[in-house]
Amino acid sequence: MFHVKRVLLLACFFLFSSLSFSQGVLTLKDKPFAYKAVVDSSLLKSLNASSSYKSLSPVEQESVYWLNYFRQNPKRFWNTVMREFLLQFPEAKSSYTGSLEADILKAPQSLSIVLPDSGLFAMATLHAFDLKKRNGVISHVSSSGKTFVQRIHAAGKYTCGAENIFNGSYNGLEALIALLIDHAVPDKGHRVNILDPKFQLIGLSFIQLSSGKGILVQDFACR
């Protein structure tokens, strides 16, 4: 079970040959989404082998699990989780969910899982707490003026990277669904990041605000 909050804010940043920033808002009814998840024990075993994963909070572990559950088989996720979500929240249906289905159908049958990386987790945690101090504002620039590019270079040696930021329901599956739908984000940058086969590493931080909502920072990278 998780609750859908009325306003979900999203922002993403890319570090490739060009740089871009996108932000959107998804508005839904405030009611529970009843979904009985079947645990992928093989995936969970792989994740639990990482000390970085085991050090996370339950909601952060949930976020990493669902992200990789999706990447292992995007079509399975669409046919189970997303179809049920859209049945319970028909107001979420739009050209964005239509394009999500199309993108998933075009995607590889399976993407590699993104492995927990201690440098990226430290980077995401610092930024998430910085955003919390600023009342949950969505920004890829820290309060000290450091850009995403500067932050990821300081975190470690990575050949590519990207960052998603979510402000909404304090739930890993809810956050993933919102980032995949990418409502009102013309370039669908959050979805692009999640579906990108080049990414091999993940670091994230999901912390709760005084309002009860959560702020999630996802940092992706290549070795």
Automatic annotation (TrEMBL):
Q: Which Pfam families match?
A: CAP
Hey, what's the signal peptide range on this chain?
1-22
Domain of life where this protein originates: Bacteria
Residues that span the membrane, as ranges: none
Residues in SCP domain copies = 110-220
* InterPro entries from the UniProt entry: CAP_dom, CAP_sf
**Protein keywords:** Signal
Designated name of the protein: CAP domain-containing protein
State the organism named in the record. Lacibacter luteus
